[in-house]
Specification:
The protein has helices at residues 19-27, 42-48, 50-60, 79-89, 103-115, 143-153, 166-179, 197-203, 215-218, 223-235; strands at residues 8-13, 35-41, 65-68, 94-97, 119-123, 158-160, 184-187, 208-213. The chain has 238 residues and is an alpha/beta fold. The chain has an eight-stranded parallel beta barrel with strand order 1-2-3-4-5-6-7-8, surrounded by five helices. Strand 3, helix 4 (79-89) and strand 4 form a beta-alpha-beta unit. The radius of gyration is 17 Å and the shape is globular. It starts with 7 loop residues before the first strand and ends with a helix.
Amino acid sequence: MMLFEKEHGVIVACDVLSIEHFRELVSRTYHIEGIVGYKVGATLGLSYGLGALSEIVREHCDLPLIYDHQKAGTDIPQMGEKFAEVCSSSGINSMIIFPQAGPETEKAFIRAIFEKNMVPMVGGEMTHTAYLEKEGGFIKNDSPERIYRVGAENGVEYFILPGNRYDAIKKYNEFLSEMISAPKYCMPGIGSQGGEIGKAFSILKGRSAYAIVGSAIYRSSNIENAAKEFCSEALKFE
């Protein structure tokens, strides 16, 4: 299931606090070549409702709206169907899950998302330190790979990778490329968290790759120029 028209581009992470700021962010970026979609999180979703956010995007464009519940997929399997229903009925096109609650929850959420004609994106490793055990975190070192494998085995094509961890990008792409013919990657951690589009995308040559960029765009003194700069870097790989 294709989500984006381009094979490379920028997803704007709209982690702003007000619906006015969200509207401004969409209105000032939707027309820029290389912007392929918008990601909203729990802050805006809980404050204003996903339906209202979807309506704002649709007022300007038909680019996909991705919901990142930060972190969905950490409940019992039965919650997947209810969660997918809420998102689908609100106009969401894709959902990000980090299914740390185990493989049965992961499979249930993936199935529910597909049944509601949305695109599941599966994440396993995050961008910050002290996440994996080897860095002092709670998550076992091999858990992200297991999560990605279950996703690939259950029809997932879009995977969330840490865009500021180049060794991780290389590792996960290598084994996912052996499992499915055309894995696609969406990467936070680019911009304010230190990741660079050129370095991350170069590792993934031949694969669809999308930078998820938030504060480096919406906190910029010139939102349009910041977005254009990131898009220009991404489109070099088209």
